[in-house]
Task: structure prediction
Amino acid sequence: MDPESYLYIGILFFLLGAVISLLPLPKVKNYTYILSSTGALSFALLSLHLLFATPRNLFSAQISSLFNLAFSGDAISGFFVLTISILTFAVSIYSIGYIRDLKNKGLMGFLFNIFILSMYAVVLSGNIITFLISWETMSIVSYFLVTFDREGKSAKAGLIYAVMTHIGTAFIIILFFLLYRYTGSMNFSDMKNLSSQIPENLRNLVFVFSIIGFGTKAGIIPLHTWLPKAHPAAPSNISALMSGVMIKTGIYGFIRISMDVLGQGPEWWGIAVIVIGAASSILGVMYALMEHDLKRLLAYHSVENIGIILLGLGASMMFKSNGLYTLSAIALIAGFYHTINHAVFKGLLFLGAGSVMHATHTKNMEDMGGLLKSMPYTGLFFLIGSISICALPPFNGFVSEWLTYQSLLLGFKSPSITSKIISPLGGAALALTGALAAACFVKAFGISFLGMPRNKHAENAKESSLSMIIGMGILAFSCLLFGIFPGMVLTVLQPVSFMLTGLYGTPYQQGSLLGISETFSTISPMAILITLIVMSFATIIFISSIGGKRKIVYGDSWDCGIPALTPRMQYTATAFTKPIRMIFKRIYLPRRELKVSYLVKPFFVKSIEYKGEITPFFDRYIYEPVIVFIHRIAERVKLLQSGSLHLYLAYILITLILLLIFGT
Amino acid sequence: MQYFQFLIIIILSPLIQGTIKKLKANMQGRVGPGIFQPYYDLIRLLKKDMVISNVTSWIFKATPYIVFTSTVAASMIVPVITTESPFDVMGDVIALIYIFALGIFFMALASLDAATAFGGEGSSREMTVAILVEPMMMLSIFTAAISAGSTNISRIAGSGLIFSPSHVLALTAFLVAIIAETGRIPVDNPDTHLELTMIHEGMVLEYSGRYLALMEWAHYMKQMLLFTIAFDIFFPIGIANNVEISGLAMSSGIYILKMLFMAVLMALIESTRAKMRFFQLPSILGGAFVMALLSVLTYIMMGK
Result:
């Protein structure tokens, strides 16, 4: 079949899913997600066509002289379609079980399908008008999904999301206008060919606007403020899609404009992207560490991972402007590899968080504990997600972060001194991020899944339904697969690398080895995994040959002689992160209040009230002043809008007169 | 022969630990246990029954194996007496740090598993120290990797580069990282079980019997590995780059001297320094980070 038919079949399945969800068929509604998972498979086949064939137009319809609805695909689109498809497939299966207790199932099914279609539309758009329509559809549908719970908090999160995303869109519209103005074309492919006609200053402007516009969607710091509010507010299957792939459409837009259409830029572009990436990754993970709301923690980690992706992409841009195309290809592959990895493990973690919330009715880690025993599969999959996101071998995060390290390390080969200095600093930032992420996931997994249950809900938690487990299992398996078979992912990435850098075959693969010839280094997560397994057996044999068979006695944990440890005596998430809060207090600006009331002062304490928080720096010192300022202006403008009809008539009259005077 | 050089680490690491303890005791005017004491301890532990807390999950039982085998995997990558290291394709020096991190990650999880405050305390502190150490370690390795033009550890060792200004700075930072990673004074006190100060000991507090033996052994191995890596990447003089018997014998002799030097150094530091308060650690580790940063910048600016 030709790729177009895969496209139409895919669209058909999603539309069918959307329509059937709205019909009054309560039994069927739970299973419409089978349609969306089939649709995702069809799109996955389409993506393979796009990756391994020449760019082609998939659909085109001239609506008016200016407005041409056009979809087309090349390797970059193909890669993103594949990423969306993998996650959609797993999330759809998960949703069968997840939505069972949801109110408004029909609306959910409808929005779910349209949301996914709109994301496909964004990455397949062939011209700027189609792109903007798809982009806005995606934003609006996701707004409805964020506010799906209709609670006060979700509504506020939705409002912030809507405002921020439209600020981003405004910048995107301006940059599209600039591109159209100087190339005279609306098609991305024509723009690319004509982009050299754009004057230097305007190219820079377009680049900056693409960072702001698409960066808002991707959640780079300091434009991330909506992300940790909106993602947790949505139902968990939607959070997985939003964090896993929706923010990647921001990355897609950035790549499309700044790396594809604009082509090669000056060196400072790449450096700027590296700096933004480093800042986003460090600050993202730092704020994640202080979160005790499981989903907000994961949302902040999305900020971190977008930062890591940008480290790779920035290094690629930097090398390209210095003419080092081989290195540029390595860094590019690092960024893309991390993009697909993040989609998989962050999707998995959000689904895991959804299962946990489903079972314990809370998002607060301080109320969980001991869940690994009551929810063994969810626990195992969440652990796999945690290991992957911490970039520990042999899982997938390790491979992409290793590639990112390699490309930053290779910065010393670039001729300019700025690049030479900035790239090892990027590497140090990545190391810091990695260590902070490990601490964060020791906390997230350790506090919620290990130890003793901290309340009744956690104690009575039940394992999720089969479809939810399968959904998570697919993603967990992908985490391992993308880790131990890096060559598989590399095959998919080569066409993308060829398109943007003109090079095939770096980094190279050889059996299970992934290698970079520039630093003479290789890794093989497969070999590491095999070593771990073989050595484990060897160790077991060795131990029993020396020690023989020994008894295991089960007893209480060491309690210093005080009988019976209670769950309240366990370390809490707050306590766990206290040293980090103290050490980085310049960043966190922690605040605490202690109120003690006495029966007889100072001996008999009646109650102690403790309140601690960290200062949300960006909200308080950047966004709040802006909001206050806007409010103040609004107060002034209000005078004009007094509500008096006579006044409004007067305005119309004055406008008319002015127009008559100046219009002629 | 080159296939088995990782066994040197596995077999001799308790001896290094014993030597350090003996040296330390002598420096402090004690007789101290013999240098083979760690072997006796390990065998004794392996032959004991185990007591396991009944609130723990499978993580607690899997962790000793993961910690031990990941350390073994790390030692397979590192060239010990010859740079003809056949397993080094498995990972480079960056992978090495992440394999160590895998062990730390699971150890920190396991210590939260028994639901005691001591475990949580150890886990929290260990992760905090890791946050301060990892960037510094990575930067000092960057210096070596950039100057050798490779991150493959055998190749760095084979390049035979020695002291240049940037290397001295990086090595100093790396030594601080070793002290922190092996839980030695002034970062942590390996001989204490005082709950207020312990980091590593807090994490393994709930372990007994063969699990404890595995954890302890892995700890010894990691210590010896870090010593070896320090020499491999900053002072590879004497390491053989072939597998001929004469070369290997020479290289083994030099290796023993190097390890002895590190043992004396560690004992000296432990005997002359006091343990620092936990929240003073950022100053020493931060200082080392600055040194590592300077070493990279020095190399880039001066080219040596």
